[in-house]
Amino acid sequence: MGKLIKAELFRTKRITGFWVCVFFITLTMIVVPFVNETSANSAASFSRGTFGIFAILGMLVSLMAAYITGRGYHHRTCMYEVMAGNSSFRIILSKCLSIAVPIALVVYVPHLIGLGIACGISSEGIEDVLLREPLLFLTILRMTCFGTLLTLCVRNMAGPVLVYVRMLLESIGMIVASAITGQDLMEGGADLVTANTTNTVMNTVCLSQQGVLLAQPVDSSLVLKVVIGFVVEVLLWFVISYMIYEKKDY
Question: What is the mean pLDDT of residues 206-219?
Fold first, then answer.
C-alpha cells in the first residue's frame, strides 16, 4: 500500500497542470470569499463567502481529481499496478489516499489561511464557524473521492467529462427542484431545519451540499446530511469500481 501511494504521489507532483490548479485554487480559497460577501470583515462573513462558491468549487476539485486519476490510464501506468499483483481493494484505496485526500488538503489548507486572515480582522461568529469546519472538509473530501472513484470505474480520460456531466445535471436538478418547491434550495438554509422531503433529498445528493453548509443553525440533522451524503457517495462508487477492477481486463 505504501509503495502504491508513494508512486502515485511521485507521478502527481511531476504534473505541471496539478501545480497550476493548486495555484488558482489557493488564490480562489483565500481571495474570493472576501469579495463574495458585501462586507467580508469577520470570520463569519468569510465562512459564508466560502460556502457561497462551493457549487463551482465542487466542480473544479472533482475535475482535478478525475484528471489526475485518468492520466494514469492514459499513460498506461495503472496497468503495472495490477500486473504487480496488487489486489483491487489496495489499488482503489491507494488512489483515494494518494489523490483524493491530498487534493482535499490542498483546497482546505488555503481556506484555513484565509480564515486566519479573517479572524485577524474580526473573530465575530468564530464559534459557529468552527462547528462547520469538519463539515466543510468532509464535503471537499466527498468531491475529490467522487472524481477519483468515478474515473476508476471508466478507466480512461472520459472520467472528467462524466464528472462535468454529473455536476451539470445536479445543478439543473437543483434549479428545477427550487422552482417546484418555490424555495432556493442552494441558499435556503433556514428551511432545512424544518426540511421537507425535497429539501432533504436534494441537499443530501448534492455534491457541494451548499444548502446544508449555509444552513442555520448547525444541529444534528445538518451533520447527519453531510455524513450520510459522504458515506453513500464514497461507498457506492467504491463498490462499483471494485467490481469493475475485479475483472482486471487490461
Answer: 80
